[in-house]
Design brief:
The complex is a heterotrimer of chains A (292), B (675) and C (336). With 292 residues, chain A is mostly helical. Helix content of chain A is 65%, strand content 0%. In chain A, α9 (246-254) runs antiparallel to α10 (261-290). Chain B is of the alpha/beta class and 675 residues long. In chain B, β11 (309-312) and β12 form a beta hairpin. Classes of the chains: A mainly alpha (292), B alpha/beta (675), C mainly alpha (336).
Chain lengths: 292, 675, 336
């Protein structure tokens, strides 16, 4: 018996039109575009900061302290110590956009590993990882940060460590859930029928399929980590001075807020616009992925 | 005047890619009390039509032309309040998935009572409750009072569908819309639901618009049938006429891609329809079927819009060439050909094979002392409803699961307790599997050629530059263009994905192929092509195929031997010829009788099973089937495991009824042409 | 259900034990030691070393942790109150009782004297914020989710995103700039006394607003997502096509199911608020638990940190337990 000649099919005949990847469809969501524009703006600012004709961020201009408002020399005025606000905001962008993504990527590395292991092996591996995560997650998050940083000391590295400790359990939970639902998929069974190893199944068959939901979470987490870094700075647990740190700048300015509100306002606006960018981007991406 | 009269209806959806006419132009008349069946594959616009009638099209859908006249009133242009008064009272609907159609956090009783309360201002809560209880009794749910108090998740699938039907009939509607109401139900449950629909229709004289992709189901319920393709009616006729004398090439194609009762792969091979259903709004404007039609003629079929033409009294067809088409083949096929030569070497032999799962303190026996044998080069089909344990056996055989006791000898090696990790590479390559879900079978992150190349390397079939050539050869074997290897799974149709899955399974030159419902998720017209392909490759390579299915028609068509399973045990096993003729195991007999046959001229003996399949955690101690068996002979069935009766060489029945009594029943199928 | 609650209570206890040990562990990294902090910066090194030995601070970590648990449960006496040390640390409750959190080296007072008043102030703040968050976020979320994709939905969703993009301290600065500096209608600090001439009520407005605005945006988004999902469910379609009026479809069929998922989220906000008060209390100089914890952490007052953490964790795990029980009651499918 042979198959009739009339049944070959070609790609052009397929019913399902190819859907381009999530990121390539991004322009169709106005929310995502606005978000991306804000993020790209700050990324660009951070990138070219050394090339800009700015005052050095830590140089104190004692003359300007008498009139800390906007002048031709200091477009956005100076801070309580006479340092140029514009320069500090620009250099602050550099700090936050270096520390936050680094911290989130590190948290993802740890969290995704935990989630993969616990969703894949289940049983006691899962029990240990999930229980440990539950303990961390039951801490009110700001309190966790305060206790951690206050004791291990404020520094960029320690902020990264704290973000990893606080975020990895949440990421692990998401990845665990994704892995557990993917484990029922038949392509995983097909991989076993090729005698693939556990590591191969986890990294090559499962992990790439967690990508789409994690992109959104990544953006949200970046926004949230920037909030955290700012908050720690405000609590006096941020980067040690004189590093320009948006949260720390707001803290320094609060004592003078009744007299010179601009000192606190400008870094606040910078911070909020960057967080807003990541949040809008995440929202647009969610909307796009649901439109499928 | 017709009860429902749809005239030149056009339904459009606005999407980001522009406006799509899901239904370009559609007309239909249904008389009061009539039952009309509308057949078509997924994507043909059937559900869109139902939702257009109900005026429920979401934010982006709209009726842009034509009328939907119901009892003389155009309901497509009705205000919110008049429409609300018609919904649920004059027109009601039964949904495809009863599980999701019911509110999970409200008792069944309250959900039912809402219908009279919403449509009858004078009725009190007490009277509404009585109405609801009566409706549940009408759909033969035992103990309506207790069902009223339950939540949907506490009912089985069949019971939920009965509740949905009760809800639809509560207000005694003039028109009942049925959207694939039995899809997803087990075949014995489906048969009971169809019986119920027929009974209620006679009782209440409700008109039905029954939508399904399953011609067999439609044949059982409907007097008149319409065939829908690409949003248009392509043929419409009384049921008998449509099956005896289908006029449209698409209707003919649908029927030819279904196995007819009594036919098998050697006497009457399936004829698939090439290609796939076009996406909404993508069909050629002249004739939607043009690109897939074997009879298409340039200059005739693509010249312009083709209207519905009268072909016979009450029989219309939308085809420019209907009069020139050759007559169709006769339904009942001739004698069966002989089995393929067997060297009598069983390649799979299960003995007392069990797979138990601990659930709390109890044991779930998914497979209980199975005895199954498959011969080299044969097709062994395993049939059974959900919960029968057929998929568990498939997994144990392929090594995705391990048996808990008993013996399973595959190609001379004992593998019962050995999943793939404990089998050697040669054995793993020799036993491969094709899965059920085309959407889950390929990793969405990798191009489709990737698993093929990976399998070739892992099994040491090819390395280096040879891999590319072998991947091309595999794709050619499953009749796919080699360029497809770079495509991602989401760019492929369901049928194409299953072909890739077949190619992947054959990459390591397997001797045994386990196919777990490989076509049940595919459209009818695509099923045939995949089945033909599978059988062609299987025959060419002399592969032994273990084919898991719930579709008895398909099993009869392609199997050499059949095993019937129920609640983890084998009920009957034998050659396909022996199994479909008396003596039957009572369960086999009931299964056969429940299977919908796409031919009104084939009469089926009516045997209906009572009750629900028992929980696999609390199986009856005697015969597993005793609680539902229509031929139960007494206490012995409940207490004592049934003996094994050898009806013929290779044909065994596990039943307390003596063989002579089992032999003395009439065959389930009888050919009775209409006068 | 009783068995379930019992099991969860045991899990809670285990979480508290593990978490308190983790806090103990983390304070090990802290520069300086308890002995130095107790005696202050001007004490002689010999005095510090003496106290260090008397308190057995060079014992292994595990031993010291067990001793701390012993003091907490009233099995052992608090070593800091030992008159032999000459520190003059006295607790009117005695040195050995259940719930003895020890002596705060920062405030030079028993932890139990410091902790509970401030906790009461914070409970007032968080309670008011919670009372604002729930109705606002439910209202916004349900309205937006009812008609997903409508202009109203887009508008409300954007508002909620903006709300969640402003960190509490930044919001505090913005609100102070507007209402205190510019309009002058509210006080910029909230010491909860009336020396400044502002009423207690006026002092509470801004701190409550800061806590509520950020969080309401977040909860509203959750409610909106859940509501939009439920509105697309087949059973809502069933309800519409049954001929129910829209009001009933939403009130009876959509809302109840849409509330199941956000219910947990809303209760977990208690956990969030506990953290949020740290920042808010600092901004407004509010005499609460959060600022106390911050000060204790910066000072390295281990007893107070431990006590505050345990209290915070107790509240957090307790709401977690309540939310799980509530979830089971709301969702018939989760009931056993």
């Amino acid at each position: 018996m042979s198959v009739t000649a009339s049944d070959p099919v070609s790609l052009s005949e397929t019913a399902g039109r190819p859907t381009p990847g999530l990121l390539r469809r991004l322009p169709s969501s106005p929310v995502a575009v606005v978000g991306l524009a804000l993020v790209l703006f700050w990324a660009l600012v951070a990138l070219v900061a050394p090339l800009l004709p700015l005052q050095p961020p830590n140089a104190q201009d004692y003359m300007a302290m008498a009139h800390p408002g906007s002048t031709a020399k200091h477009w956005l005025g100076v801070d309580p110590l006479g340092r140029d606000l514009l320069s500090r905001i620009v250099w602050g962008a550099r700090t936050v956009l270096a520390v936050a993504p680094l911290a989130v990527v590190a948290a993802y590395t740890v969290g995704a590993t935990m989630g993969l292991l616990s969703g894949y092996y289940r049983g006691w591996v899962d029990a240990v990882i999930s229980r440990a995560g539950d303990v961390i997650l039951s801490f009110p998050i700001v309190i966790l940060y305060v206790i951690l940083i206050a004791n291990i000391g404020p520094s960029a590295l320690n902020i990264v460590v704290a973000v990893v400790v606080a975020s990895a359990p949440g990421i692990s939970r998401i990845v665990r859930g994704l892995v557990m639902s993917l484990m029922h998929q038949e392509f995983v069974a097909a991989a076993y029928l090729r005698r693939e190893s556990d590591v191969f199944v986890m990294l090559v068959e499962l992990l790439p399929n967690c990508r789409a939901p994690l992109i959104t979470d990544f953006c949200l987490r970046l926004g949230y980590t920037i909030i955290t870094i700012g908050t720690l700075g405000f609590l006096g647990l941020g980067l040690p001075p004189p590093n320009p740190d948006w949260g720390g700048m707001v803290k320094q300015a609060t004592s003078m807020i009744t007299v010179f509100p601009h000192m606190a306002l400008y870094p606040t606006i910078a911070l909020v616009s960057l967080i807003l960018g990541f949040n809008l981007l995440a929202d647009g991406l969610t909307e796009l992925s649901q439109a499928d | 005047m017709a009860l429902l009269s749809i005239r030149d209806l056009r339904v459009e959806y606005t999407t980001v890619r522009g406006t799509v006419a899901a239904i370009p132009e559609f007309s239909l008349d249904i008389d009061a009390g009539e039952s009309f069946g509308l057949v078509g594959e997924s994507g043909c616009g059937k559900s869109t039509l139902i939702m257009a009638i109900m005026g429920y099209m979401g934010r982006n859908g709209a009726v842009t032309r034509g009328q939907i006249l119901f009892e003389g009133q155009d309901i497509a242009r009705l205000g919110a309040e008049p429409l609300r008064r018609i919904r649920g009272s004059r027109i009601a609907i039964v949904y495809q998935e009863p599980g999701t159609a019911l509110n999970p956090s409200m008792t069944v009783g309250r959900q039912l009572m809402e219908v009279p309360l919403a449509h009858d201002a004078k009725i009190g809560r007490g009277a509404a409750r009585d109405c609801a209880a009566q409706a549940l009794a009408d759909v033969h749910l035992p103990d309506p009072a207790s069902v009223m108090r339950r939540y949907p998740h506490q009912l089985s699938g069949g019971q939920k569908q009965r509740v949905v039907i009760a809800m639809a009939l509560l207000a005694n509607p003039a028109l009942l819309l049925l959207d694939e109401p039995t899809t997803g139900l087990d075949v014995t449950v489906e048969a009971a639901v169809l019986d119920l629909l027929n009974e209620l229709r006679e009782k209440y004289a409700t008109a039905l618009l029954y939508i399904s992709h399953n011609l067999g189901v439609i044949a059982q319920v409907c007097e008149r049938i319409g065939v829908m393709y690409a949003g248009k009616m392509v043929e419409q006729a009384p049921a008998a006429a449509l099956f005896r004398n289908p006029r449209h090439p698409y209707t003919r194609g649908l029927l030819a891609s279904l196995p007819r009762p009594g036919a098998d792969k050697r006497s009457a091979p399936l004829v698939p329809i090439p290609g796939v259903v076009p996406a909404a709004g993508r069909a050629p404007p002249s004739c939607g079927f043009l690109t897939r039609c074997p009879h298409a003629l340039a200059g005739v079929c693509d010249a312009g819009e083709i209207s519905l033409l009268p072909a016979a009294p009450e029989h219309t067809v939308r085809c420019a060439r209907w009069a020139e088409l050759p007559p169709v083949r006769s339904p009942m096929a001739g004698a069966r050909a002989n089995l393929p030569a067997s060297d009598d070497a069983p390649v799979v032999q299960a003995l007392d094979l069990s797979r138990a799962f601990p659930v709390g303190r109890r044991m779930l026996l998914a497979n209980d002392r199975l005895e199954i044998t498959a011969q080299r080069g044969h097709v062994l089909a395993i049939v059974g409803e959900s919960g029968s344990g057929k998929s568990t056996f498939a997994k144990v055989l392929a090594g995705l699961d391990a048996a808990t006791s008993g013996s399973l000898v595959v190609l001379g090696q004992e593998v019962a307790g050995r999943p793939v990790r404990r089998r050697d590479a040669k054995l793993v390559a020799a036993v491969q599997m094709v899965f059920q879900q085309p959407d889950g079978t390929l990793n969405p992150s990798h191009p489709v050629g990737w698993p093929l190349a990976r399998a070739l390397r892992k099994f040491g079939i090819a390395r280096g530059g040879d891999v590319e050539a072998r991947v091309t050869a595999l794709l050619e074997m499953v009749r796919l263009p080699p360029s497809l290897r770079h495509a991602l799974p989401r760019q492929l149709s369901g049928g194409q994905k299953q072909r890739i899955a077949i190619a992947r399974a054959f990459a390591g030159n397997p001797q045994i192929l386990v196919a777990d419902e490989p076509v049940s998720a595919l459209d009818v017209s695509v099923q045939a092509a995949v089945i033909n392909l599978l059988l062609a490759i299987q025959a060419e390579h002399r592969t032994t195929m273990v084919f898991i299915s719930h579709d008895l028609g398909l099993v009869r068509y392609l199997a050499d031997e059949v095993v019937v399973m129920y609640l983890g045990q084998v009920m009957e096993a034998g050659s396909v010829a022996a199994l479909f003729e008396p003596p039957y195991h009572p369960y086999t007999e009931a299964l056969l009788s429940a299977a919908p046959v796409p031919d009104p001229e084939v009469r089926t003996k009516r045997i209906r099973l009572e009750g629900e399949i028992p929980s696999p955690l609390a199986v009856p101690p005697g015969c597993r089937f005793a609680t539902r068996c229509p031929r139960r002979i007494g206490r012995i069935c409940d207490d004592t495991p049934p003996p094994l009766r050898g009806a013929a060489p290779g044909h065994v029945i596990h039943c307390h009824i003596p063989l002579d009594d089992l032999r003395a029943v009439a065959p389930v199928f009888r050919h009775a042409p209409a006068a | 259900m009783t068995r379930y609650i019992l099991r969860r209570a045991l899990e809670m206890l285990a979480t508290l034990l593990v978490a308190s040990f983790l806090v103990f562990l983390v304070t090990e990294f802290s520069p300086g030691n308890v002995a130095r902090k107790t005696l202050g910066a001007f004490a002689l090194q010999e005095q510090v070393d003496l106290l260090y030995r008397k308190l057995h601070l060079n014992d292994p970590l595990m031993e010291r942790y067990v001793r701390w648990v012993g003091v907490l449960t009233g099995v052992e006496a608090d070593p800091l109150q030992d008159p032999a040390l000459g520190l003059d640390f006295k607790d009117p409750r005695g040195d050995r009782y259940f719930g003895n959190f020890g002596y705060s080296t920062l405030y030079k007072a028993p932890v139990n004297d410091v902790l509970w008043d401030r906790l009461g102030n914070t409970a007032l703040l968080a309670g008011l914020a919670f009372a604002v968050i729930v109705p606002v976020s439910l209202g916004l979320g349900v309205l937006a989710g009812m008609r997903a994709g409508s202009p109203l939905d887009r508008g409300l969703s954007t508002v909620s995103i903006v709300m969640t993009s402003i960190p509490e301290f930044a919001l505090g600065v913005l609100l102070v700039a507007v209402f205190v500096v510019w309009l002058g209608v509210l006080p910029g600090t909230s010491p909860l006394d009336t020396h400044s001439g502002w009423s207690i009520a006026a002092q509470l407005v801004l701190p409550v607003a800061v806590l509520a605005i950020y969080d309401a945006g977040y909860v509203a988004r959750m409610v909106r997502t859940s509501m939009a999902e439920v509105m697309a469910k087949p059973y809502v379609r069933t309800a519409v096509l049954k001929g129910l009026p829209r009001r009933q479809v939403i009130l009876r069929h959509a809302l109840r199911n849409a509330m199941i998922a956000p219910f947990t989220v809303i209760l977990l906000q208690v956990n969030w608020l506990i953290g949020g008060v740290v920042v808010t209390e600092l901004v407004f100089a509010y005499p609460g638990f959060g600022r106390m914890l911050l000060d204790a952490s910066l000072f390295g007052d281990v007893s107070l940190i431990e006590a505050a953490t345990l209290v915070a964790l107790f509240v957090a795990t307790m709401t977690q337990l309540l939310s799980d029980i509530g979830y089971r009651l709301l969702d018939p499918q989760a009931r056993r």
